Structure formats: C-alpha cells, structure tokens
Amino acid sequence: MSPETKTKIDDLVQQNKIMVFMKGTKLMPQCGFSNNVVQIMNTLGVPFETVDVLADPEVRQGIKEYSDWPTIPQVYLNGEFLGGSDILIKMYQDGNLQEMVEVALAS
Amino acid sequence: MISPDQVESMIKTGLPDAKVAVQDLTGGGDHYQVAIVSSAFEGLSLVKRHQLVYQAVNSAMSSEAIHALSLETNTPSEVAMSGAD
Asked: B1: which of A97, B6, B29, B33 fits an S-S bond (Cβ 3.0–4.6 Å)?
C-alpha cells in the first residue's frame, strides 16, 4: 500500500465516526454483503459515511492490508475496525451494535 | 472455485481441533458458508476469530477461488451452553 493510500484511509476512518468501505453506494449497493451493512445502519438510523471501493482500486486493495481483513464490506467505528458483514449482523442481533454505536456517537 | 472438502481441509490445517461444517451457498464452489467450532477461538473477539480462519484459507481468498465466505465461529463451551451442535 502506498503512503498516500494509507494516509487517505487514516483520514477516512478518523474523520468519520462510522465509516463503511463497501461495493457500490448507500443507494445502490453492488453486493449483497455490502447491502446487509447499509440496511443495518439504516435500521439503526445513525449517520454513516461510505466509500465505494469499486471506484477506487487503491483503497480496495489498501483497506484489506490496513485491517488485515480480506473481504469487503468493512466497518470502522471511531477509527477502530469493527468487522465485516457477518460480524455486524451478529452484533446487531445480539443488541451489542446499537449500544456500541450510541456510545461512539456520543463521544 | 474450490471443493467443500478442500475448504474444510484448509481450515483444519490452520485449526487442527476444529469441527467444520461447509455449505456451498450457490453450488458454484465459490460462495461458502462455514460453521467452525474450535477451542482456538477461546477468549478471542469475533474479528480475531475470523482473522484466524481467513489466515487458514488465505491462498484461496487471495486467488479469488473463494469469492465469498460467510463465517460462524464458536468455541466448544459456547456450543455446549447454547445446547446446539
């Protein structure tokens, strides 16, 4: 990953409390797993930012190294890697996600 | 693409005590759902658990032989508590 890409990802995850790296956009997700994450965030009714990795090959590859995680989507909360689609679904079902998001947004 | 048996054996190479149930979601050999029970997950967050599995199947992920991998990771004691197997 180039230093420029790392800086770009650093900025994205630090400047946005909830940052989702996904395939497609909020309105037009291009993958079922990315769509899962968008639907969960919409259900929680919280503000979140997204990056379409299909439009940015550098970030698409870079984010996998950045978080040591081989798949998209990836969710960051307050700069911390939270997980991908499976983890978000499980946390949502367990009720942990709502709590973590509320705490993060209040900080 | 890759066979369910290959997925299972890759995971067992990385996590020798694992009980692995592999489901091919589309029949195409590249979208898999895998349930894994291993004592190696004890005390680890979900992120760390999934990273352990990803490391075991790393070559198949990076070659894109596996396009999508949905994971369920539990420890033997979690399975015992839930009453399911």
From this structure: B29
